[in-house]
């Protein structure tokens, strides 16, 4: 046979059944996952609850980042309407006993809570996800020891624990962020642990073990991507709790800083005793601001959860 008639190496070497099937299956799997993600994204972006929640949260984020775009007064500036002006008299939401514009206080008061709560939630998510994955994959004595510690933390009321930590270590902003984050680690860890246990028994994890992959590789590259949707849901849900927790600490005067600073929890605390004198607006409007922000976050969380389950 001449050189030109010799079969090529591709013709003489039969393809392995595993190799011939692996590429199409992998490609098909990726295409299917991409289609699922696109459908979930469509469900999320067309959800009325998600749109309303995003508008609410977006407004408060704008207020926190650029307060001067939404008001012409400063948070401690005496406005021409004078003290105790009623809503829609000369200002939109009236003035408090100090002659400060309530609406302006709301706008500037969004910044503290939208700094502390997201950072605390992010810290809790990182630590809780790491612990949950380690406990769910390795189990054994690691799981037993950490589970007992987390159960002990869960048995302590959240606000009581927060006050104890803040009083002991100070009420600086880093301490408050770390405290709120610590409070939510046990709940997040327990949720991620349950998901990791379920994933660890599936075939793809067994296959990775048979390939000789390390435990940390399996946790980071195999299990973690499959629990990311649950992590996102936990992030949004815990953010709402973090907002309430910070507002409660501010109401109790445990957030440090100047007592005259614009802060929703502080404003409620300093003005709620005027309700009996029919001066309800300086405290009701900050309380409503807290409620609207939490409602907006919860609407987003519920929408994400429904989209992921669709």
Brief digest:
With 310 residues, the chain is mainly alpha-helical. It contains 11 helices and no strands.
Verbal overview:
The protein has 310 residues and is mostly helical. The chain has one domain: MetI-like (MetI-like fold). The longest helix has 37 residues. It is elongated, with a radius of gyration of 27 Å.
List keywords for this structure.
single chain, 310 residues, mainly alpha, MetI-like fold, 73% helix, 0% strand
The CATH topology turns out to be MetI-like fold
Strand and helix order: HHHHHHHHHHH
N-C termini distance: 62 Å
Q: Helix- and strand-based class?
A: mainly alpha
Tell me, briefly, the overall form: elongated
Determine the CATH superfamily: MetI-like
Query: If you compute it from the alpha carbons, what radius of gyration comes out, rounded to the nearest whole angstrom?
Result: 27 Å
Question: Helical residue percent?
Answer: over 70%
Q: Indicate the low-confidence ranges by residue numbers.
A: 1-26
CATH architecture: Orthogonal Bundle
Question: In CATH, what is the class?
Answer: Mainly Alpha
Biggest beta sheet attributes: none
Mean pLDDT, all residues: 85
| Strands, total number | 0
Strand content: under 5%
Q: How many helical elements? A: 11
The tally of domains stands at 1
């Amino acid at each position: 046979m001449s050189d030109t008639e010799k079969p090529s190496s591709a013709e003489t070497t039969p393809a392995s059944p595993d190799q011939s099937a692996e590429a199409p299956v992998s490609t098909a799997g990726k295409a299917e996952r991409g289609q699922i993600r696109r459908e979930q994204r469509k469900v999320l972006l067309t959800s009325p609850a998600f749109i309303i929640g995003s508008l609410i949260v977006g407004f408060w984020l704008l207020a926190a980042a650029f307060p001067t775009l939404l008001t012409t007064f400063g948070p401690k500036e005496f406005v021409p309407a004078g003290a105790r002006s009623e809503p829609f008299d000369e200002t939109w939401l009236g003035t408090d006993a100090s002659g400060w514009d309530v609406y302006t206080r709301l706008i500037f008061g969004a910044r503290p809570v939208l700094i502390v709560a997201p950072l605390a939630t992010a810290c809790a998510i990182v630590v809780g996800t790491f612990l949950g994955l380690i406990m769910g994959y390795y189990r054994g004595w690691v799981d037993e020891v950490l589970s007992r510690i987390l159960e002990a933390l869960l048995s302590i009321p959240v606000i009581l624990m927060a006050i104890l930590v803040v009083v002991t270590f100070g009420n600086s902003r880093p301490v408050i962020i770390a405290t709120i984050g610590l409070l939510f680690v046990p709940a997040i860890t327990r949720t991620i642990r349950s998901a990791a246990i379920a994933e660890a028994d599936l075939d793809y994890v067994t296959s990775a073990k048979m390939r000789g992959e390390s435990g940390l590789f399996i946790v980071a590259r195999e299990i973690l991507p499959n629990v990311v949707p649950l992590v996102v849901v936990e992030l949004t849900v815990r953010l709402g709790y973090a907002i309430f927790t910070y507002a409660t600490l501010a109401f109790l005067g445990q957030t440090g800083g100047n007592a005259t600073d614009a802060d929703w929890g502080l404003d409620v605390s300093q003005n709620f005793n005027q309700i009996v004198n029919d001066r309800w607006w300086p405290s009701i409007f900050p309380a409503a601001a807290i409620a609207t922000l939490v409602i907006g976050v919860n609407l987003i969380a519920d929408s994400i959860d429904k989209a992921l389950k669709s």
